[in-house]
Amino acid sequence: MALLALVLAVMTAAAFTFLRSRPTAKATPMPSVPPEGPAAARAEQFEYKSFKGDKEGFILRAQRMAGQEQEEVRLQGVDLTFSYMAKGQPGTGRIISDEAVISPTLQKGNFKGHVMVTTAEGFELYTDSLLYRGDRQLAKTEAPVRFKRKDVSGTSTGMTYEAGEGRLELPADVVMRIQDEANPATDIKAARALLVREEGTMRFGGGVVITQGGDVLRADRFEVDFGSDQSIYRARAIENVVLDSASGVLPGTAPMAGGQGPRHLTCRKLDLWLRPNRSLEQAVAAPDADLTLRPGPKDAPEKRRLQARALSFRFDEQGRLYELEGQKDSAFDTDPIPPAKGTPRRLRCQSFLARVDPATGELRDVEFRREVVFEQAPQKATAENASYDGASGVLTLRQQPEMVDAEQGSRLRAQAIDVATRTGDLTARRDVHHVLHRKGASGQGLLVGGQEPALVTATVMEYTASTRVARYRQNALLRSGRDEIRAAEIRLQQGDAHGKWRLEATGGVVSFLHPRREAPKEPAKGAPERIPDGATVEARARELVYTEEGQKAVYKGDVSIRQGDIATRSPEATLNFTPDGASIHTLVAGDPVEVQQGPRRASGARGTYTPQTETMVLVGPKVVLKDPAQEIEGRSLTFHVGDERVLVDGQEQVRTLTIIRNRKEPPKP
């Protein structure tokens, strides 16, 4: 377009060089301009030559001089040949018209009828009339104009050129075409166009439409800037900008790899910066940039929309996108296109910088800055800053990151959170706080089916979406209400097909549980005060496995369990909960097991404690009960926690029966 503007400026000026030239030599022996006389003066085969110094300026020929009135000469069959300088090089041009009225003294010429201007460089201009005023340095026509030079052609209704100001105006119905061998033809339509040579700018106005292949750019105005070497370095579309691109990110750029589909860009201004070789270097859409991307044949059936106050596209010398930047109030939305099903995705941040592999079009990485919000129902993530790695597909949230899952009822915080976008896996690092809400549960605490949320803290948390397992490592702690589990590592499987949970803990396991306690149906007369409801059950072991399916917790490895003044030690112990998970039904420990209650000590192969009846049943080849006053032995032994009753092999014993020996000395500690 700048090329076209310069051609019009230079060639139009050159076309009228002859009128600005003043003859310095006599006319040739050919018929000369007759002296002033009546209008009836006539001459055939008219010819007039003008010189600038020793050089010929122009030659004016006409088939007939139709008349003369004062200084005006009327000619028919006009053929004007002129010389000019362009870019420091001499050139020649030619004007042909059916007739002309020439006034050399006033430097005025009016060409009419099939006017054609041509130059040696291949410039052609066609119109029905052309007026030149040398005294005003003005060339003008109100008739339709058609022009062409090499790969540039166009039309307009009217043309005005002011040589002194270097101003070229196409006042109406402007149409231009630029044919490039390497690219499809570019068509420009506008209500008007204006070139100001001193400003180095050509402006198109009044509903501009630029088309190249399947790409269309619309705007109220379009401007092109060119330097002193007449090369374009900048172009811009202004106000109500709408760009529809069928292949590349922008018209004239290389198509992106992968067959991406059409793009729709709107903004108030689209600023294009070009390299000296005319390749696009950068495009800035601002303010209120809005880019919609439709899927290509190989893309997922979803619509993507990118918005920001400003979007900057940067291209390499091959016209391939390598960087995209969004500034202020950036938003990225992805929605499935019916009938395809999927979950919409939303991303918000203040600004971002995305880097693209120019050769493949694949995303290398993205930096998101300030107030980052990512939503993919039922999940929502927030952070101050974030980054995305294209190779791994991992989104890393930094500076006060938080993830909320409304479906699972969880809230995760840490110093950094990694989200594997392709698998849904998560990794949280340093100061991990994970809050889990139990929907529709009853009771108190996680392990007893509690309604209260569970809080898990650790140094590292790793979540695998395919198995729904969260792994908490390094000083892991799970707390729900008053219940608490500590271990080197806790693994929590969040809800199977039946909504049941599974918990595994390893390495120095310590748990504190507060089950609900139901009173015995028939309390013994004179029994001492029982353990109050909610008495803590403290357990220590190397491993713990808890499953809601079956409602039980299995401890393994040097297990010790204590509630109130009763304690057990065994290699393994199982807490069996009531169906609602709110109370402990039985404690089974062994093999073997040691039991202590105050001064009582007992041992056997296996022990079963039932809180509701407050009884401990020990079985095995040799069951022994010791207290400060006696020692009892049998194959089955039942004693009551709340009183001194003891059953040995099904028979009640009260201190005097089956006594192996009486103890007169106090028991050893």
Termini separation comes to: 103 Å
Mean of residue pLDDT? Answer: 81
- The shape, in one word, is rod-shaped
Alpha plus pi helix count: 2
Counting DSSP E segments of at least 2 residues, the number of strands comes to 42
Q: Topology, pairings included?
A:
Layout: H1 2-15, H2 17-20, E1 43-52, E2 55-69, E3 72-86, E4 89-103, E5 108-119, E6 123-133, E7 138-149, E8 152-162, E9 167-170, E10 172-180, E11 183-190, E12 192-196, E13 201-212, E14 215-226, E15 232-245, E16 263-274, E17 280-285, E18 289-293, E19 302-308, E20 310-315, E21 321-336, E22 345-356, E23 363-376, E24 379-389, E25 394-398, E26 402-405, E27 410-413, E28 416-420, E29 426-436, E30 454-464, E31 469-480, E32 483-493, E33 502-513, E34 537-547, E35 552-563, E36 566-577, E37 584-597, E38 600-610, E39 615-627, E40 630-640, E41 646-648, E42 651-653
Antiparallel strand pairs: 1-2, 2-3, 3-4, 4-5, 5-6, 6-7, 7-8, 8-9, 8-10, 9-12, 10-11, 11-13, 12-13, 13-14, 14-15, 15-16, 16-17, 16-18, 17-20, 18-19, 19-21, 20-21, 21-22, 22-23, 23-24, 24-25, 24-26, 25-28, 26-27, 27-29, 28-29, 29-30, 30-31, 31-32, 32-33, 33-34, 34-35, 35-36, 36-37, 37-38, ...
